[in-house]
Design brief:
alpha+beta; 2 domains; four-stranded antiparallel β-sheet
């Protein structure tokens, strides 16, 4: 029980304090339960409570009814709501505990709870969730935190696990999408089946052919990015020299870390100066190329300023990059035929 800070209260104040104490006791018991199951699950529970607004509500002195907290914890313990896109990565795009989402299916914008968007109940096994958190999600979030606090120089990934998480991110996201479409396929379990040694081997193979870089857009007129449903987006990566295998250009892969910064991997031999110069095109490519990326999250500040134009602009962006990709592929085929 929490200590009582006052001897004499009004009836309503006393009632409020009893609710605070009741909720505090319940959350403490939940903490002990989750701690017994493992701290990894506990951190996910806390993140979920924050995204639902439960913990923020208590911090503001707004006490949620005990029944709603109980229902939330019951749903977490019984059938977890698993994201096929890392939930914490979408935090910079949020409006409180919500995300503004554009859906290409009906070309409408909706305000969705971040805890439920890009998620499905019981999607992943506990083992797959633990591997995702350890090998992929935590290193990426740590990298973003260090960039925000100026504790890491951009383009210099000193720790292999951060570098590895980026190199493997498109592959693991592909497995997560396959898991969404085929829940019985065990796609994530297969991806992590060989443990850390297997992940190192996959990352080293990609490292031999990739260059990692950060791409910021905050200094540009259209200085913000969407967050795509698959968790990353592809963009053209022009080559310094034409390649018999690739032609004139390859594809880079970018993981949005904030609406203004992406972590990207491009093939060795790419024209890094040209890619840096063409950063203004990243916003277009962040809407995704096809229906695999049906929904995209919009930065809340952008939507408040440009709500009327956003829908038409997003559709136009998709149409434009679709044409650009067709042209790029045609140019590559022509170049390869002449090499």
């Amino acid at each position: 029980m929490l200590p009582c800070p006052a001897e004499r209260w009004t009836r309503s104040e006393a009632w409020t304090w009893r609710r605070i104490c009741s909720t505090y006791t319940f959350l403490r018991q939940a903490w002990l339960k989750v701690k017994a199951r493992g701290l990894g699950h506990c951190s996910k529970l806390a993140a979920s409570l924050r995204s639902e607004g439960v913990l923020q509500g208590h911090a503001r002195g707004i006490v949620a009814p005990r029944q709603s907290v109980t229902a939330h914890l019951t749903s977490r313990f019984g059938m977890p709501n698993d994201h096929y896109v890392t939930n914490a990565l979408t935090e910079p795009w949020r409006d409180g505990s919500f995300l503004w989402c554009f859906d290409f299916a009906d070309r409408r914008i909706r305000r969705e709870p971040a805890s439920r968007l890009f998620a499905k109940e019981g999607l992943n096994s506990p083992a797959a969730e633990a591997s995702l958190n350890r090998f992929i999600e935590s290193p990426l979030l740590e990298f973003r935190h260090k960039l925000r606090t100026n504790k890491l120089t951009p383009n210099k990934l000193s720790q292999w696990r951060m570098y590895r998480s980026l190199l493997l991110f498109p592959m693991v996201q592909t497995a997560r999408i396959l898991q969404l479409r085929d829940p019985q396929g065990g796609h994530l379990e297969k991806f992590f089946a060989h443990g850390e040694q297997g992940l190192d081997q996959m990352a080293q193979e990609r490292h031999a052919n990739s260059h990692v870089m950060t791409l910021g857009v905050s200094d540009l007129p259209s200085g913000w990015l969407f967050y795509p449903e698959i968790g990353f987006f592809q963009f053209p990566a022009p080559l310094l020299q034409p390649s018999p295998e690739l032609g004139l250009s390859a594809r880079g892969v970018a993981v949005p870390l904030t609406p203004y910064l992406a972590l990207a991997a491009v093939p060795k031999g790419a024209d890094l100066a040209k890619i840096e110069k063409d950063r203004g095109q990243l916003q277009l490519w962040s809407v995704g190329l096809n229906d695999d990326c049906r929904r995209i999250a919009i930065p809340a500040p952008v939507l408040r300023k440009h709500q009327d134009e956003v829908c038409e602009d997003i559709v136009a962006m998709r149409e434009r990059i679709t044409l650009c990709e067709r042209f790029r592929l045609s140019a590559n085929e022509l170049a390869k035929s002449q090499l």
